[in-house]
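re: ur question from yesterday

yeah so i grabbed the chain u mentioned. its 295 aa long if i counted rite. heres the sequnce exactly as i have it in my notes:
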Amino acid sequence: MPPMSLPPQPWPTGLADQVEPLIARVLAPNGSPFTFTGTQTYLVGSEDGLAVIDPGPDDPVHLAALDSAIAGRSVLAILCTHTHRDHSPAAAPLAAITGAPIIGCAALHIESDAPRVDAPFDKSYAPDRVLADGEQISGPGWTLTAVATPGHTSNHLCYALEETDALFTGDHVMAWSTSVVVPPDGDMADYMASLDKLYNRADRIYYPAHGPAVTKPRQLVRGMIGHRLMRERQIVKLLGEQPRSIAALVPVMYKGVAEYLWPAAAQSVHAHLLDLERRGIARLDGDIWRPAPKR
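ran it thru and got these structure tokens back, copy pasting raw so excuse formatting
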């Protein structure tokens, strides 16, 4: 699923947009082809106490905007969906400003020499408390439940706002693009299982970390599952025609997609191939993938 084109600038960075009575959104100034218009930080709660979800990059302009949006209110928790550097580095400085604990996903840092097409991991992230699937935190008039959604990263969490049936989906589900799944930490089988998990929920609306809100969540998730299954079938068909490297698969599979997106596509193709290998459908010889022998 190719990403939609970027909306015209200027983007409304630094402004507190009240999207629902319990939810405000502040856009960080880190727009790029892989973050859309930038990371969206969400303030959840009321005058009596807030949670901050995905504080974003450690950028003084964004931190000042968050401080202004918080406006002296008590911050009870700072939560991160995962620890890519466009999501979590502002957690520590925001905790220093507000005195709030950092709660949510586990720390994770993967060392790799491979070129990255997503943000690298945040080495500085140090949570005060890690939430397991189904654990909750609450404040005046709000309750957030952790929903474990590994795949994009192994430590990815979504957060469900129980009072309004809203789900903060981080990078797991976004309307503007499919999530990049980058091995070795990103895992296609986990990603697909996490999509199934969300499809079986009854959330009213999704608020992703990048791009617009998703007002028809199950419809979008169903389409994303279908898209990934289509890519899997495409790989199996192409390997059946002739063994190929990832570099040879991508131009055929992503014909018509801008070439600057091919490195990201190659990572997801790699994730699909690793999943097919585990399932005994494909095998690797050197840098060439071919169908696995039938048992």
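noticed a couple things. The first helix runs from residue 60 to 70. also The chain has a mean pLDDT of 93.
anyway ttyl
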